[in-house]
Design goal:
The chain is mostly helical. The protein has helices spanning 2-9, 16-35, 39-64, 73-89, 94-116, 122-141, 143-146, 174-195, 198-208, 210-215, 220-246, 251-254, 257-270, 277-293, 296-303, 312-320, 325-339, 343-356; strands at residues 152-153, 160-162, 165-168, 248-249. It contains 18 helices and 4 strands. 38% of the residues are buried.
Length: 357
């Protein structure tokens, strides 16, 4: 009871220094494509924005409401498939497909929430995984709608126009950079508003003690479903953006369990239930994922002399380390849980407090 009352009466404002720092960072992000023309650098930033969007989205239901869904690939895939189906088969521009994807994800979330929120703890986690797997199997077998295992390839993205004026033609990565940046800012802003609103305090009360929250008159079913709906909407938006940017989707890339696990890892590593935790988690996971994919880690090990390329261990690194995402992520999660249970962000805060004392 005391914990819940403390949550409801707690208010936190941003300091002038943090506001100024945020404005400077924001200005730097908007000017980044002007200063850096490398398509690879823009690609990394786009992946970072995408990761941030997914992490912030999950954080609403998992971090604040305490409902640890491991099936968010369902909403990610709903947005991706809705957008691509409408664009490729119905010739509907993807920005309208994004809106349709959000609607589909909201309907799916309401159906899932009305059923699965009757469960708690590990049972809810297992149910969320099952739902995502059902959607993956549906996408695999409904070939007339989703093209099955062959996936959907975007042949052309229509230019974005206002009247007869062409705003952008999507021929470079710059438009995708700004779209990703705007959506990421929007998700962070929504997270901030949720955290500092009565709705957010209700979510946190449910997270801390569901029975105590219910005894105070908080309708658990309604507020859990609201949290899931907000989370699903933005996860769907991330899926739509991914589909448009990559230009190809199939069940293993947008509906696999790996997607759901990666979304959760972003928050666990950065810090669950915080505004900037998913951003920090993305700063860790995106470079790590890219380093694994391009075998930069193996090359670094060879350069500093820890292993030889001709040795058995060196050959193993070159051939398998690029595909060892699950292993590396698992080790990283174990390290974080053991030494940084509040995530990287929480660990940094503890260090700064110790230095201040």
């Amino acid at each position: 009871m005391r914990q819940i009352n403390a949550l409801i009466t707690n208010t936190r404002g941003a300091s002038p220094v943090s506001i100024i720092l945020g404005v400077v960072i924001l200005a730097g992000l908007f000017l980044f494509p002007k200063a850096v023309e490398s398509p690879y650098a823009l690609h990394i930033m786009i992946l970072f924005f995408l990761s941030t969007i997914m992490g912030e989205s999950w954080n609403i239901v998992g971090g604040y409401a305490g409902q640890y869904s491991v099936g968010h690939a369902a909403y990610f895939g709903a947005g991706a498939y809705t957008t691509m189906i409408l664009m490729q088969f119905k010739e509907i521009p993807p920005w309208y497909g994004m809106i349709a994807g959000i609607i589909v994800a909201l309907v799916v979330s309401l159906i899932i929430g009305s059923i699965c929120f009757r469960l708690r703890g590990p049972y809810f986690v297992l149910a969320s995984i099952a739902v995502a797997e059902i959607m993956r199997l549906c996408a695999m077998n409904l070939k007339n709608l989703t093209n099955g295992a062959e996936g959907i390839l975007a042949t052309d993205i229509p230019p974005f126009t206002l009247g007869e004026t062409v705003i952008t033609d999507f021929l470079s990565k710059v438009p995708f950079y700004y779209i990703g940046l705007v959506i990421a800012i929007l998700t962070i802003a929504v997270t901030y508003l949720v955290q500092h609103s009565k709705l957010g305090y209700y979510f946190q009360a449910i997270r801390e003690d569901q029975d105590a929250a219910h005894s105070l008159g908080i309708n658990l079913s309604i507020y859990k479903n609201i949290a899931l709906a907000i989370s699903a909407a933005f996860t769907s938006l991330a899926g739509s953006f991914y589909a448009i940017y990559i230009g190809f989707i199939d069940p293993p890339t947008v509906l696999a369990l790996d997607i759901s696990v990666q979304i959760v890892l972003i928050c666990i590593i950065g810090g669950i239930g915080t505004i900037w935790g998913p951003v920090v988690g993305s700063l860790v996971l995106v470079p790590l994922s890219e380093a694994l994919r391009s075998n930069l880690i193996a090359q670094g090990i060879f350069k500093i002399g820890l292993a030889s390329e001709e040795s058995g261990f060196g050959i193993l690194l070159k051939e398998h380390l690029a595909h060892a995402h699950a292993l590396i992520y698992g080790i990283l999660v174990v390290v974080v849980i053991l030494f940084m249970p509040d995530g990287v962000l929480g660990y940094v805060k503890k260090l700064t407090k110790k230095k201040a004392m």
